[in-house]
Amino acid sequence: MNPKEMNERLTAWGWNEAWEGRFDASVKPGARKLVPARVTAQFSHLYQIVAETGERYAEVTGKFEFEAESRGAFPAVGDWVAAELLDGEPRAVIHAVLPRMSAMSRKVAGNTIDEQIIGANLDTVFIVNSLNEDWNVRRLERYLIIAREAGIRPVVLLTKADLCADPEAYVAEAEQAAPGVPVIAVSAVTDQGKDALAPYLQTGMTVAATGSSGVGKSTLLNWLAGDDLQEVQGIREDDARGRHTTTHRELFVLPGGAIWLDTPGMRELQLWDSQGGWQETFADIETLAASCRFADCRHESEHGCAVRAALNDGTLDASRYVNYRKTERELARLARKEQSASKRQLKQAASRGGRGAGKKTPMNKRDFIAAYDEE
């Protein structure tokens, strides 16, 4: 394979001059024979990467494992990395993760206080909801929070429009919950909505599809690719919820040149460090709250409360307000837990004579695998 062909292979996965500059700034000249590669799939602690010479499986170095301070520091699908391609072997070793342009993340499931990267270096995230009995606009708001916190452009896709008698009513409800966010009803069966997706699927752009099981993410991928890239399963008839089809995160290059991140359905979406995304998602309620007579208004029975007035006259949806307060409490609870964890780490460092004070305990491979959450 000649150099031009190798360069075209990386370009197909989103490589450009900006990433070349980041690579040059991150890798010390002459240290090792490191090359740029993109993480295209993740299987617990094992990664699939694509470099100029093709695909390989890779692991991080022992030094990387030792120095990683959290799960979020490990490579994620969509990351560009500095990798060493081992001579005579079909595998590679990852030495470093290039600085991310964006990272969509959530809190890991359970009581562990750590971050899970859903996808890195994304231009757009398609928040996928299906127009069936599993419709949940409050869940949509949670996805909006994490997309906006990451600085990634959100687009709401309402799938299975061919099975819905009045898709426009759902479009209106989604637009009310996501002011200013494009909402597109699509159907892979009738080919509805494909043209509306074109601006988000330009050559070199990376887009993620995220949502619950059964909303049609794999069907979307197959439809846009014009090929059966992912297996598709049906949904349960009793509650319209899906069975897991996608079991890991993986990138695919679409015929038009966009890069598509397919993700497993999520049973739960716990927020992670999302104060900015929360405020943006509920900007209408935050604006109302700023208009209350008292700065410390709790929006309960205070005189001059603009939020209560909007709830009473119906201009503010009561269930939206409930979700606003629920996610507010969730973020506050997470902040308290993080603070407590930091204090414990400082005390442990002090008990060791001050060595490593202020530094998190590195995460080794065993901890990483134990914390890994397959949705």
TrEMBL record:
It comes from Cohnella nanjingensis. Belongs to the TRAFAC class YlqF/YawG GTPase family. RsgA subfamily. Residues 334-375 are annotated as: Disordered. PANTHER family: SMALL RIBOSOMAL SUBUNIT BIOGENESIS GTPASE RSGA. Binds 1 zinc ion per subunit. GTP binds at residues 159-162, 211-219. One of its GO terms (cellular component) is cytoplasm. It comes from the Bacteria. This is Small ribosomal subunit biogenesis GTPase RsgA. Monomer. Associates with 30S ribosomal subunit, binds 16S rRNA. The keyword Metal-binding applies. Its cofactor is Zn(2+). Its EC number is 3.6.1.-. It is an enzyme of class 3 (hydrolase). Residues 120-267 form the EngC GTPase domain. The gene is rsgA. Zn(2+) binds at residues 292, 297, 299, 305. PROSITE patterns: ENGC_GTPASE, G_CP. Its main location: cytoplasm. Keywords: Cytoplasm, GTP-binding, Hydrolase, Metal-binding, Nucleotide-binding, Ribosome biogenesis, RNA-binding, rRNA-binding, Zinc. Residues 110-269 form the CP-type G domain. HAMAP family: GTPase_RsgA (MF_01820). One of its GO terms (biological process) is ribosomal small subunit biogenesis. The lineage of its organism: Bacteria, Bacillati, Bacillota, Bacilli, Bacillales. It is found in: Cytoplasm. GO terms for molecular function: GTP binding; GTPase activity; metal ion binding; rRNA binding. One of several proteins that assist in the late maturation steps of the functional core of the 30S ribosomal subunit. Helps release RbfA from mature subunits. May play a role in the assembly of ribosomal proteins into the subunit. Circularly permuted GTPase that catalyzes slow GTP hydrolysis, GTPase activity is stimulated by the 30S ribosomal subunit.
